[in-house]
Hints:
The chain is an alpha+beta fold.
Amino acid sequence: MTPHPDxxxxxxxxxRERVRHHRDGRVDxxxxxxxxxxxxxxxxxxxxxxxxxxxxxEADVTVSVQSAVKPFLFALALLDTEGEALDRVGIEPTxxxxxxxxxxSGTGRPPNPMVNAGAIVTxxxxxxxxxxxxxxxxxxxxxxxxxxxxxVDDDVAHDEHLLGDRNHALAHLLxxxxxxxxxxxxxxxxxxxACATLVDAETLAVMGATLxxxxxxPRTGARVVPERVARDVxxxxxxxxxxxxxxxxxxxxxxxxxxxxxxxxxxxARGRLGAAVVSPPxxxxxxxxxxxxxxxxxxxxxxxxxxxx
Length: 309
């Protein structure tokens, strides 16, 4: 078996230079804050089990986390419901886009927690007597994954809530199926605020490393979630995290990951490292073009592919 290269020596700046000149893809324009993103932004980070973080230029530029929050919402829901979230949300891939109007036949459950319908439910399952308490709990939980206090972009949260017609439709459908206990408006408000959490590549890499390390934050040493929760989350990231491109991702990259329309990609290589790329131009699956290229290179050069020798 080929020895694993040492990621603590990996040149993330050189990787950035190799991928940042690609001009394919387009910036998401579903809300004004996303439409105004810098298409040239490209930040890359690796977070290792000993707490070491290797970063490139622009790894400290913040964006709203958007859909990359979904694995962490799932983790918090599993933790706060002692596993009941697995009864409320499926774990099967859909082959459909992230906002597809699609629920499980016979149960009315969302198909998995990585699509919008599933994330609306998992956000609603986090402990709290009402939306404000759930928002606070989510903010604290995401900060624990990051190892530092995270801020929220209130303008993004407002636009996500106000302009999220499809999410409101999903929430009303979930209510009609008996799968959402909060009101549709409250559920979307909580999810929208979670998506508006501000992160950068370095922060996302640490969050990914916390999952990759079995739920222990490599920087703080704090256990954020039990090992079993981290295992369940990473497993669903592997099968569902890249939506209708999940199969192609696992063949090419072989590392559980989650994408976002703000251009973030977070990876969790179990027992090895967390990694992240932030670069806004997206491909047809809604994945950062440079994020995909960088992830393929990391997988190949650091021998991260789960099914390669």
